[in-house]
Amino acid sequence: MKAVGYKKSLPIDAQDALFDFETGTPEPRGRDIRVAVKAISANPVDYKVRKRAEPKDGDVKILGFDAAGVVDAVGPDVTLFRPGDEVWYAGSIQRQGTNSEFHLVDERIVGHKPKTLSFAQAAALPLTSITAWELLFDRLGVAPGKSVDPRTLLIVGGAGGVGSILIQLARRLTGLTVVATASRPESRKWCLDLGAHHVIDHSKPMKEQIDALKVPPVVLIAALTNTDQHFAALADIIAPQGKLGLIDDPASLNVNLLKGKAASLHWESMFTRSSFQTADMIAQHNLLDDVASLIDNGVLRTTLDKVLGKINAANLKQAHALLEGGRATGKLVLEGW
Fold first, then answer.
1. 3-class secondary-structure state, position 73
2. Alpha helix ranges (H) inside the chain
3. Which of helix, strand or coil describes residue 197?
4. Could you report the per-residue pLDDT of 98-137, keeping only the tens digit for each?
5. Helix, strand, coil percentages in the chain from 3-state DSSP, rounded to 5
6. Which has the closest alpha carbon to 282: 55, 56, 107, 64?
7. Is the pTM of this model over 0.85?
8. Of 298, 240, 253, nearest to 114 (Cα)?
9. Domains in the chain, ordered, with CATH?
C-alpha cells in the first residue's frame, strides 16, 4: 500500500522530512477494523510528533490521526462495524497513522461518518470534535442544554481547529456566553460566523476588552494556543472558583496565580482513552456518532478550510508548513491517492 512517513526528525523544508513509500497492508486482529482511507486532515500534533519522535534506526514512522474512509476488513471481535461502512475517527498516538492507503484502528474510537458530508468534509472534524467535546463537557464540566447559563466561556484561539468546533458546541448546545479570541480580520469573521457572541484580540490586553463587553463572569476558559504567553492574563481574567482548560504544550506555568481565586486547571488530551485503554474508551465512538447526528441535523458544520490535493508527501509537507507557521484558519485536508 502507499504511505507517507519519515525516518528522521527534520525541518519541514528538508527533502526527507516526509517521503512517499510502499509498505505491506496490515491485517486486523481483535477489535481492530481496517479502513480504506479516503481523506485525512492535518493537525498541529502531526508536526509536533514529527519534530520530537524520531523513529528507531531503519524504521519509518507514519503520521496522521484524522481520517474518513470505508471499512475494508474487521477483526474477529468487532461488533460495531462491518465491511462497507463509512467511518471517521482520530486514531491513536500509540500506533502507525492515517497517512496510508489502509489503516488499522480500534472500533471503540471510531464513529459512523456523517451522511451529509463528503469524505473530505468529514476528515476535517474527528480530532478537533473529540478534543472540544471532552474539554467542554468532560473536563470543564458544562452540562449540555440550552437553558440560560449566567457564565462566559472565553476561547483563546477561536479560529483554530479545536476552537472552531468548541465555538459551535458551546453556542448550539449550551446557554453560555461565548467570547473567542482572534487577531486577524479573517479569523475574527470566522469566529463570528461560527456563532461566537463576541471576539476580542489576543494580541492586545485582553482584560480591558473583556471588561468593555459587560458580559457575565468569565468562569470558564479554554486556552487552546500559546497558553504560557497568555497565562498571567487569563489568571487575571478568570472569575473566582473558575475552571481553566488547556490542550497545548506550555514549557511552564505558574499555577500559583490561580490559588487566590481557587481556580482549577484541567488538561485535555483526546489520546488518553486510547493510550491507556480506559474502561470508558467507547465514549469516543458514542461521541463521534453524536457529532455525526448533530451535523446531519444541521446543528454543527464542517470546519474544512482548504483541500490541498491528494495524500502524498509534497502536499503533507505544505500542510505541516502552514500549521507550523500558525496561519491556518479552520482545517487543512488531503483527499485521494
1. strand
2. 44-52, 119-123, 126-133, 161-173, 185-194, 206-213, 227-237, 272-275, 283-296, 313-324
3. coil
4. 999 999 999 999 999 999 999 999 999 999 999 999 999 9
5. 35, 25, 45
6. 107
7. yes
8. 298
9. 2-126+271-335 (3.90.180.10), 144-267 (3.40.50.720)
